Amino acid sequence: MKFNTLKLDDVVVHRVPAKNDPTATGPVLSEAPSPQDNKVFAFFRQRMSGVMANRGLPIEPDTTIVAANPPAGEVLLAVTRLVGDPQELVSASREIAVRLYDAQDGRNPAGILVVARGEIDGQPCAGILKLEHERGVQAEEEHNDDGQLVFRVILHDDLLLTEKTAVFKSAVFRRRSASDPALLAEASDLQNQRDLAGFFLTEFLGCKLVDDPPEATRKYFDAAEDYINTRVADPEKQARYEGALLAQMNSAALSIAPDRFARDHLGTEEHQPFLDHLTASGAQTTTFPKDIGRIKARIKRVAYRFDSGIKLAGTPTAMAEHVKIVKSNDGTKVTVSDEIAQMSGGG
């Protein structure tokens, strides 16, 4: 989600206990916007910006999920209200907190839910941040001048101010334009950066990932690798197919044609099974724009892992030039033709 400026107006903080906490009957809900100092506002603003600039995956409403489980649509309805009317922030955030508690199970730790309203490039926006309690951030109960329960967030510098601490799941919604009230949205999950936790994306937000070029490329790469590793028995073929896949990802081509890849690099009998596997994995089978932004680090090296525990790794070019894999009656023979540059202990 490209943006220039992010402005926050107000935040509301709720405490969401673990579902397996025998003393909890539901979330502890604020009754008014939470008083926060500039440091805390800057932290929330930084994390929302990080979702959009670095880690966010585009999402959209999943009508199938909501039709099967209507409560999954409650967050989107609440977000739409608070984006449209600043006065809805407290009531909408309370509904979001209740939905988060209901959507979680015993595996989710106790946490703090922050719901913020502001503007992105002049258009109203909403942010949802789920923080893990007691890991660099705490929420202390207090009452404002009107006697309303609120939470003041306390940051612990020694634990918190690192890239991966405290904010584990987050989502940002903004109005598309002044004339178009439709919402653009992105979400991230620092605990599972290659995907989003199922409960957070589907059960809580009622959304699904949008297959923009980076996401379509990631899905295709994951599905193709899975096919090579689980459906191809010949290790020589596995190595050859993996090399071809990495070459496809690293090439200057601006698009990916799965059917062409199958025809050029796979056996004739594997062509349709490969495409069927892509379909079953949710990947595209027709030509689409290539964007390796989300898999860039993964396509720079190829690794072979053997039953003995030995691992052989290198760049795709080096592996293609120096490693030969042949299957024989005695097993798989791997030959490395190269000069030894250094030897050392592996401990």
| SSE sequence, one letter per element | EHEHHHEEEEHEEHEHHEHHEEEHEE
| Overall form | elongated
Distance between the termini: 43 Å
Strand arrangement, major sheet = 1-3-4-7-8-2-9
Parts with pLDDT < 50 across at least 5 consecutive residues: 158-166
Number of strands: 15
Kindly provide the radius of gyration, computed on alpha-carbon positions and rounded to a whole number of angstroms. 24 Å
Q: Which secondary-structure class do the elements indicate?
A: alpha+beta
Largest sheet: 7 strands, antiparallel
Share of helix, binned: 25-40%
Percent of sequence in beta strands: 25-35%
Instruction: Compute the number of helices.
Output: 11
Structural domains: how many: 2
Mean pLDDT: 84
Describe the structure.
The structure is a single chain. The protein has helices spanning 38-55, 63-68, 74-84, 89-103, 157-160, 198-204, 213-231, 235-250, 258-265, 271-280, 316-322; strands at 6-16, 57-61, 111-120, 123-132, 137-143, 149-155, 167-177, 180-189, 207-209, 255-256, 288-289, 302-305, 311-314, 323-328, 331-336. The chain has 347 residues and is of the alpha+beta class. It has two domains: 6-210, no CATH class; 214-336, no CATH class. The strands form five sheets. It has a seven-stranded antiparallel sheet, with helices on both faces. A two-stranded antiparallel ribbon has the order 5-6. A two-stranded antiparallel sheet has the order 10-11. Strand 3 and strand 4 form a beta hairpin. Helix 4 crosses helix 6.
What's the layout of helices and strands?
Blueprint: E1 6-16, H1 38-55, E2 57-61, H2 63-68, H3 74-84, H4 89-103, E3 111-120, E4 123-132, E5 137-143, E6 149-155, H5 157-160, E7 167-177, E8 180-189, H6 198-204, E9 207-209, H7 213-231, H8 235-250, E10 255-256, H9 258-265, H10 271-280, E11 288-289, E12 302-305, E13 311-314, H11 316-322, E14 323-328, E15 331-336
